[in-house]
Amino acid sequence: MMKIFQAYHWIVFLFLTILCSCTNDIDDHLQLLKQIVEVNVDGSSTTTVLSYDGNKISSIDNNVIRSDFFYTGDLITKIEEFDKVNKHENTLKYIYSNNDLVKIISSDNDVMNYTYNTDGSISYEKLMKNSNNNDVRVFHGILYFLDANLIKDDLIFDDTSDKVLRRKSSTLEYDYKNNALRNILGFNKLLNYYKSISLNNSILSTEVTEVKNLDTNQVISSIKLFKSEYKYKSGGFPIEIISEKVVLGNGGSSIHLKTKLYYD
Questions:
Q1: Which residues are CB-contacts of 47 (< 8 A; sequence separation ≥ 6)?
Q2: Eight-state DSSP code of residue 196
Q3: Which of 26, 65, 170, 210 gives 153 a disulfide partner, CB atoms 3.0 to 4.6 angstroms apart?
Q4: Where does a domain end: 195, 210, 227?
Q5: Closest CA relative to residue 67, chosen from 222, 200, 184, 239
Q6: PROSITE patterns recorded for this chain (predicted)?
Q7: Model pTM?
Q8: What pLDDT, in 10s, does the model give residues 128-174?
Q9: What are phi and psi of 65, to 5 degrees?
Q10: Same domain for 82 and 9
């Protein structure tokens, strides 16, 4: 009888363990970011609303811009953007090869090309049409990743004079918590969304800008540091970020104070 009881006890324990594990997986899966509130130092704020169809993002909308997302299978293949301030519409078409993003074609007559290197890095370039309808390279660079996080971006600007080399290098450090956008299907493929596609959260971003005169070898450089502090909810998803950086953007601003995040 004792052996039967022990066996039964073990089966119940195993079942509860599996159940808890499944419950955690479900809770993580349901953590979809629904609202972002960017708060400035003067108390003003901007609210961004994210809408979904299941775990597929359908729109990101605020008082400045609205983006509508369209899928083919599990991949985002088109984004329609509407700039509410300038009343401008732009359509981005995303092209993949073996589920990897290789090209973005914009209705604004520019193209982003991505090439996957053997060391795991990704090279990129932006081309635009000039007045003669020829492709002109605006910039190019390399993205470096570690453990599904973007850790470095080396960017060189091509729209400068032949005697000037202008470049920007960004390096990032991360924690081990969940990026608020990680459960959006296919979002991590969107390389043009920069740090927002990483698995974890950036706690420190360093940007070094360098301008070099190729005739004299004179170099003018500057460095910017952006630190971020996080508050988390259960499950490791952020609910508040104190930083000059915004969640869905690359720029920093001295007026930005913090970001508040709300889930379903």
A1: 35, 36, 37, 38, 62, 63
A2: G
A3: 170
A4: 227
A5: 184
A6: PROKAR_LIPOPROTEIN (PS51257)
A7: 0.84
A8: 988 888 889 999 999 999 999 999 999 999 977 778 999 999 999 99
A9: -145, 145
A10: no
